[in-house]
Structures are given as C-alpha cells and as structure tokens.
Amino acid sequence: MSNKVHLGHTARKRFGQNFLNDQNIIDNIVAAINPKVEDHIVEIGPGLGALTEPVAAKIDNMSVVELDRDLVQRLESHPVLKDKLTIHQGDALQFDFSTLAQEGQRLKVFGNLPYNISTPLMFHLFEQADIIENMHFMLQKEVVLRLCARPNTKAYGRLSVMAQYYCKMIPVIEVGPQCFVPPPKVDSAVIRLEPYRELPHPALDIKQLQHVVTQAFSMRRKTVRNSLKGVLSVEEMEELGVNATYRAEQVSLKQFVDIANYITNRSKK
Ligand code: SAM
Q1: Ligand 1 centre from 48 Cα, in Å?
Q2: HSE (CB half, 13 Å, CA atoms) of 135?
C-alpha cells in the first residue's frame, strides 16, 4: 500500500508515522478515553487527526503536541479543529506537561505514539504523574505486555516495575497492522494507564529505586546475590525477605521498593 495517505501527506518514518485508518478501532479508543467537556485533554502526535477529530467533536477545546511542522500547519488550517486546538509544535519528550495543568485539574493524555520514543516518553510522563488523571496509548503490543507483566514471566522487566510503581494498567484493545497506513511491522495494542493518587509502595528516593531496578535487570539471568553485589549483602536481602537466589524477574515491585528504601535509610545512618 502506498504510504501517501489522506490529503497527500507522505508518512515520515523517522517520526514513527503510522496513521490510524480503521473506524471501528478509532471508535473503541474514543469510547475508552470518554472525553467530557470539563476535561483537559492532551493528545501527543495528533498527525492527520484520526483520533483528534472524534475527540474534539465531544469537547470545546484540547491541547496537542506535534513534532512534524507540516502536520502542525495542516491542523492550523483545519476547518473544524483550528478553533478547538491549542497546538504546541515540538518534541513531546521535552514538553513540560505541567504548564498545561490548571490548579486542581488533572490532564487526560492520549496518543497513538511514535513507537521509537514510546518508552522514554512514558518515563517522561511518569515523572509528571501527579498532574495526570489517566493516559490512553497505542503502543507496540509487546510494550503493552511488558507494562502489564507480573513477576515470574518473561515480559516482566524494568518497564513493568517502574510503570506499575506509578500506574494501574488496564489493557483496552489489540490492533493489527492492517488498521494503519502505512502498516507497521509489529502488532499494536491500546492500554489505559491510571496514575495512583496514593502510591501503593512509595519509595523514599525514586532515583534509588530506579538504580536498583536497572542494575538488577541489567543482569536478568543472574541471581540478585550477583546482580546486586556491592549494593546489598545476602544477609541484608534475607532481612528484607528477598531470597538471594532469586533472579530479577522473581522480585516484586514491593520487594524492589523495600530494597531501595533500605539502602536509602542505611545511607542516612
Ligand atoms: N494520531 C495519529 C493517528 O493515530 O493516525 C498519528 C499517529 S503516528 C503513529 C505518531 C504521531 O506522532 C505523528 O503525527 C508524528 O509526527 C508525531 N510525533 C513523532 N515524534 C514526536 C515527538 N517526539 N513529539 C510529538 N509528536 C511526535
């Protein structure tokens, strides 16, 4: 299939442009977002407006962040959208979402994300999770499986632990490559992420948690006795109820937080 889609825009691979082209999937995503007039809705990568148009139809205004200047120009001259959108041209990875959040109001963020930046972008948003009500993202299906993965599974890793630290995960719908123009080489899926108002397992120092999780999973085949050598002794692990012969994929979020908090407290002594 040609990658020249609607109105002659040529999809740019470097911007991860795969445009949604399936009304049934679009309807499902919009129903999951469930836009309300009082919501402050933000879309990342509106592209040619496949999701923007039906969402904007239900509300008075919304914000969008789009990197591609040609697409921004199109949105600026779109007969319906131009009056409803506040358009931020730029890189969502650098965008300070807190500038959009009005006092007491949380953002509803969504996007069919460019897959090449989806993981760093989610980490960027997790840092601002306290101003976000929920997020709906189209991602590579494999990434959705990692986000939802429980311990003792292959998909469980750094992304699962850190994402589940901040958010509750709700898978929404699977989406095949044929639903996009041009079709991506991978399967996709939509997920809803709901940041916790109160973290179930709060870390005293989030950097310490990130450090421990990254180090443990950088050697995921090794036991934590080995991967966390120099960070925590076997005696300290046992004190925390973490079996030193576990591999990283057997350690729960709570146990990672216990380890990180133990190290934080120990460094204060
Ligand atoms: N929302 C449209 C749809 O569903 O058809 C387009 C989705 S396409 C997968 C990803 C969109 O994100 C494109 O419009 C692309 O230009 C935009 N994009 C790519 N990198 C971006 C970035 N770093 N910041 C903001 N938008 C970006």
Answers
A1: 9
A2: 29
pLDDT for res 267: 87
The answer to whether the CB of 214 falls within 8 A of the CB of 227 is no
Distance of CA 92 from the midpoint of ligand 1 (Å): 9
Cβ-based neighbours of 200, under 8 Å, separated by 6 or more: 254
Closest CA to 42 of 70, 61, 58, 23: 61
Does residue 241 contact residue 224 with C-beta atoms inside 8 Å? Answer: no
Query: What is the rounded average pLDDT for all residues in the chain?
Result: 95
Residue type, 139: L
Give ligand 1 pocket residues (Cβ under 6 A).
15-20, 44-48, 50-51, 65-68, 71, 91-93, 112, 114, 117
Q: For residue 240, what is the DSSP state?
A: T
State the pTM of this model: 0.95
